[in-house]
């Protein structure tokens, strides 16, 4: 396999009895990239990650990670990867430093290396001052950082993050985003599943949307947004009686069918810096009173709704996951 790709998946199928959880998934992750895997609950995101990390055997298809086949060469795959699941795997009765030493021991790493690496990770994740405190005294954000640090104890070249910021407050989530950006800047390849579409927008160079075990869209954030019609004008009128006038005023600028919701009109428009001024002039000429007017790009939420017919999940489903990492 070319070193251009850290992960190559072809026609991946996974069945559980009569349930076809994955139905011919194709996926590539470029070396040094962040690829976001999006989909509603039950779409197959976690199942995919568990197969990539050798925790689950595929029913059929080809899966290579770091150039190794996950079925025929699982030990080689495990030496190249780290995995952080949806829920913290740290031992709350051990200190932060003891947790890292424990994971180093599980990977059979040299004790001297583990001591040096633990100090580096505790400093990197801003946990040095809490290194000798039991993990049960940590905040949610601190536990998540320790969990991620433990997946990096063996310096993996590829990191699988399954819902890494689930349950974190906004400040902790932003902090973890920066950690992920730093990891990628240092050369780590990341496959990220997330329920937060803003997270994929911020972090992922490439996004794969799956639903019912199939890939339904693939591209950059901007490419996916372009698929649903580009920019749109949103107008809230001062009186609901003026909705029809607002629709008529915006019609010459529209590139598709408008959507009316109570006192609001949503109209797709051609892109360009002048379209907002044209809309203001047209609404004014038609005597439409405007309470609010905005021109915006579609969000990934819009893309998700358009592709799947429903919003992204708001609560992740508990899924048992394990952890594998690289041996030194």
Describe the overall structure.
The chain is 33% helix and 26% strand. The model is unreliable at 314-328 (pLDDT under 50). A six-stranded mixed sheet has the order 6-7-8-3-9-10, sandwiched between helices. A four-stranded antiparallel sheet has the order 2-1-4-5, covered by helices on one side. The chain contains eleven helices and 14 strands. It has two domains: 5-225, Rossmann fold; 229-297, YebC, transcriptional regulation domain (Alpha-Beta Plaits). Helix 9 (243-250) crosses helix 10. The chain is α/β, with parallel strands linked by helices and 328 residues long.
Specify the CATH homologous superfamily of the largest domain: P-loop containing nucleotide triphosphate hydrolases
CATH class of the largest domain: Alpha Beta
As a percent range, the share of strand residues is 25-35%
Number of helices: 11
What would you call the structural class?
alpha/beta
């Amino acid at each position: 396999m070319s070193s251009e790709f850290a992960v190559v998946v072809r026609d991946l199928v996974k069945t559980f009895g009569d349930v076809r959880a994955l139905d011919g998934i194709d996926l590539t992750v470029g070396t040094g990239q962040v690829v976001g895997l999006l989909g509603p609950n039950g779409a197959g995101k976690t199942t995919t990650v568990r197969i990539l990390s050798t925790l689950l055997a595929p029913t059929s298809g080809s899966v290579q990670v770091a150039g190794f086949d996950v079925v025929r060469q699982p030990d080689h795959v495990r030496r190249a990867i780290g995995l952080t699941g949806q829920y913290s795997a740290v031992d709350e009765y051990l200190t932060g430093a003891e947790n890292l030493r424990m994971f180093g021991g599980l990977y059979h790493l040299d004790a001297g290396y583990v001591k040096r690496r633990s100090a580096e990770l505790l400093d990197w994740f801003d946990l040095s001052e809490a290194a000798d405190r039991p993990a049960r005294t940590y905040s949610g954000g601190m536990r998540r950082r320790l969990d991620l640090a433990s997946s990096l104890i063996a310096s993996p070249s590829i990191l699988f993050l399954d819902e890494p910021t689930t349950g974190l407050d906004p400040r902790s989530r932003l902090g973890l985003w920066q950690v992920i950006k730093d990891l990628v800047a240092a050369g780590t390849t990341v496959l990220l599943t997330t329920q937060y579409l803003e997270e994929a927008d911020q972090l992922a160079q490439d996004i794969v949307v799956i639903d019912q075990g199939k890939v339904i869209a693939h591209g950059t954030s901007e490419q996916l947004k372009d698929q649903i019609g580009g920019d749109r004008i949103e107008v809230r009128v001062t009186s609901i009686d003026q909705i029809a006038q607002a629709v008529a005023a915006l019609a010459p600028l529209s590139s598709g069918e408008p959507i009316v919701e109570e006192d609001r009109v949503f109209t797709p428009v051609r892109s360009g810096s002048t379209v907002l001024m044209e809309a203001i002039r047209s609404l004014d000429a038609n005597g439409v009173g405007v309470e609010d007017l905005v021109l915006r790009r579609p969000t990934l939420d819009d893309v998700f709704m358009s592709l799947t017919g429903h919003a992204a999940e708001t609560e992740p489903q508990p899924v048992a996951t394990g952890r594998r990492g690289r041996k030194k």
